[in-house]
Amino acid sequence: MMTETLVPFDEVLERYDPALGFEVHVELNTVTKMFSSAPNAFGDVPNTNVNEVDLGLPGVLPVVNKAAVESSIKIGLALNCKIAEFCRFARKNYFYPDTPKNFQTSQFDEPIAYDGYLDIELSDGTVFRVEIERAHMEEDAGKLTHLGGATGRIQGADYSLVDYNRAGVPLVEIVTKPILGAGERAPELAKAYVAAIREIVKNLGVSDARMERGNVRCDANVSLMPKGSSTLGTRTETKNVNSLRAVEHAVRFEMERHAGVLDAGQKIVQETRHWHEDTRSTTSGRPKSDADDYRYFPEPDLVPVVASPEWVEELRAQLPEPPAERRKRLKAEWGYSDLEFRDVVNAGILDEIEATITAGASAAVARKWWMGEIARRAKLAEVEPAELGISPAVVVELQGLIDSGKINDKLARDVLDGVLAGEGSATEVVAARGLEVVSDDGALQAAIDEALAAQPDVAEKIRGGKVQAVGAIVGGVMKVTRGQADAARVRELILKTLGVEG
Fold first, then answer.
1. Which of 288, 315, 342 is at the close of a domain?
2. Which residues form the Asn/Gln amidotransferase domain (predicted)?
3. Residue 502, in any domain of the structure
């Protein structure tokens, strides 16, 4: 039985150097699947977006999706890869219940793109170059849902259901070369690298890039080398991690777990691992197969893909502004400081802020909401801000209500509660919950009189010239009005009532 003792992260770094490797799977957003005419759509009724090719029925023949090939080439170009003028598909043979053909059509020794790199900017501005070994085309498998157990995982489940809607969806798998030298920043680099891939494919328009839907998934490989050694350790592969936070935590956990195993004099088992978000830990999956175990051979039913230099250059001309150049432009346009902009990028909300500004908010307002209240709520919910369910239009509408004086910042948070609860738009929530600011002088005066009567000593201080004490009375009024009073108007009326000039 392998020891699962975890070594504190700082102690891991004292004795070992980490080696990383990432395999990021990107689902392409083509209209149809990789080798069939079945729809490529998310969330439809299970087993409806399938046809004979997806199910591997006898006598059917696949046809390559040209749009998927073009998207794959664009990804390769964006990763600074060389594009193969000639490449082939291969059969990767293994049995799994969500792969009805009993093999996956992929690429083996002839990928569409190879020998690239990506410069990753870390939180403090440090740039770390990650070498890309290859980016190859393949098809996705179906999806298993495990039922009858307490956790929804295969362990303890009574039975499983399979949905073949995802079988055959176009994928590009991006594989790095071994990444050395990250040291203590290995978990941060893992998160930043996957974030950069997600940003690139979303910017290219070739993937919806929604990690919660599995559009971008990461297999994170981790091994440890004793300090001073140049020999790579035995690696484990944590499969299908589908959030940036989880990628970071998975790498950190595996480093601590590996160190515990090695310190105990045991050997690391080369295997796949399952990530569990609830416990932020991994568990053993299956022994990791090497390429020979898959019995790759050229796919006999598909002709080679020939990417002529002219076609590649035509696609290169269609590439959008690179993310690094875009960030530089947006920073200048928005007027953010270096620190402010870096915080936005590190929070992964650049697109959301840009969309909010495009929808009509100022750069300062967009940053205030996304880096403030929305980020706070996302942290509590342990999700990324973009996954909270607040759209740029909601932010613009909320700020418009504040600017018009209908609500204040405090009430806006209550309005946001209603929007997230599905009670309608911000304006509808204000009306339904009666959250509009009280600005009627008669109603305010009654609340002021009550607050003054409750704090006569404070009222005397204000009459005596200590105008700053008016805040205590304003607070009393806000309490009476449940935070719905116009604070500025309340202050004016308090001073007027006490005969004091503001």
1. 315
2. 351-498
3. no
The helices-and-strands tally (H runs, E runs) of the chain is 17, 17
Q: How many residues in the chain?
A: 502
Which residue is associated with the tokens 């039975």? 159
Query: Are 373 and 257 in the same domain?
Result: no
The span from the CA of 439 to the CA of 462, in Å, is: 23
Between CA 264 and CA 6 the distance in angstroms is: 11
Distance separating alpha carbons of residues 200 and 180, to the nearest angstrom = 23
Residue in this structure with the two tokens 């259901």, named with its chain if needed: 161
Check residue 199 and report its DSSP letter.
H
DSSP code per residue over 295-323: T-EE-TTSPPEE--HHHHHHHHTT----H
Residue 6: half-sphere exposure toward Cβ, Cα within 13 Å:
13
388-402 pLDDT, tens digit each: 889 999 999 999 998
Instruction: Write down the residue that tokens 């098809």 correspond to.
Output: 139
Q: Are residues 378 and 461 in the same domain?
A: no
The distance in angstroms from the start CA to the end CA of the chain is 76
Residues 82 and 173 in one domain: yes
Percent of the chain beyond pLDDT 90?
66
228, exposed or middle or buried, with CB in 10 Å at 0-12, 13-18, 19+?
exposed
Give domain status of residue 341, yes or no.
Answer: yes
* Residue 3 included in any domain: no
Query: Is the pLDDT score of 192 beyond 70?
Result: yes
Find the domain containing 485 and state its range: 441-497
Name which of 138, 141, 135 is nearest 115 in CA terms. 135
- Taking only the tens place, the pLDDT of each residue in 49-80 is 999 999 999 999 999 999 999 999 999 999 99
Report CA Rg, the chain.
Answer: 28
Same domain, yes or no: 228 and 296: yes
Nearest 10 degrees: Cα torsion 367, 372, 376, 378: -20
Please give the single-letter amino acid code of residue 267.
Answer: K
Burial grade of 448 (CB within 10 A; 0-12, 13-18, 19 or more):
buried
3-state secondary structure of 444: helix
Are the C-beta atoms of residues 138 and 118 closer than 8 Å to each other? no
Dihedral class, residue 382 (left if φ above 0, else alpha if ψ from -120 to 50, else beta) = left
Domain end marker among 315, 334, 368: 315
- Coil, strand or helix: which one is 124? coil
Structure tokens at 159: 């039975």
CA distances from 86 to 35, 99, 107, 296 (A): 19, 27, 12, 18
Per-residue tokens: 148:
């009858």
Q: What is the pLDDT of residue 3?
A: 46
Beta-ladder partners of 175: 23, 134
| Tally of domains in the chain | 3
